[in-house]
UniProtKB/TrEMBL annotation:
Keywords: Cell membrane, Membrane, Transmembrane, Transmembrane helix. InterPro entries: UPF0295 (IPR020912). The chain crosses the membrane at residues 12-31, 37-60. It comes from Mesobacillus persicus. This is UPF0295 protein SAMN05192533_12444. The keyword Membrane applies. The keyword Secreted does not apply.
Amino acid sequence: MGKYSSKINKIRTFALSLIFIGFFVMYGGIFFRNSPIVMTVFMLLGLLFIIASTIVYFWIGMLSTKTVQVVCPGCGKTTKVLGRVDICMYCNEPLTLDASLEGKEFSESYNRK
Ligand SMILES: [Zn+2]
């Protein structure tokens, strides 16, 4: 069960890693100080990653409006559920909005049609 995490958290991690990749690429550009063209390419590439991350953060905001807030039976905290099944953001308890799936083992495949 440990390998699953909340979808929103997953996307957030993805957006955060994009920022890091962006800064890393920009930092890499410093090693090409001697050729301004290569450095500019690195800087632009890094900027692109950061822009992409901003878009992903925006997407999270859009997704958040579609999530359903539920009180987790495991830890009692209010968490967000996206799709038919999701994982509690705090304690990784599997949650479902579909009564027919209740009690079944958690699987991400329930979200697919
Ligand atoms: Zn919980």
